[in-house]
Amino acid sequence: MYRSSLISNTKYDVSFALPKGDQYFGKVTIQFDIKDLTKATKPLFIDYLGTKITNYNVNGKKMTES
What we know:
- The protein has one helix spanning 2-6; strands at residues 7-17, 25-34, 56-58, 61-63.
- By secondary structure, the chain is mainly beta.
- It has one domain.
- The longest helix is centred in the first third of the chain and has 5 residues, at 2-6.
- It is elongated.
């Protein structure tokens, strides 16, 4: 409920490569509209259950680990 109170119009574009073996590879693009963040009471995050993220971009800008 918390995330849905802050975001709307969520769209996902998902592609995977599923080679034989224990690993898979993919790309996910998530687009959404953010409502008024002044009403946010805690951080907004995206759940991820994979093992590793090799890189990510926000609004077309490459992000680094912090």
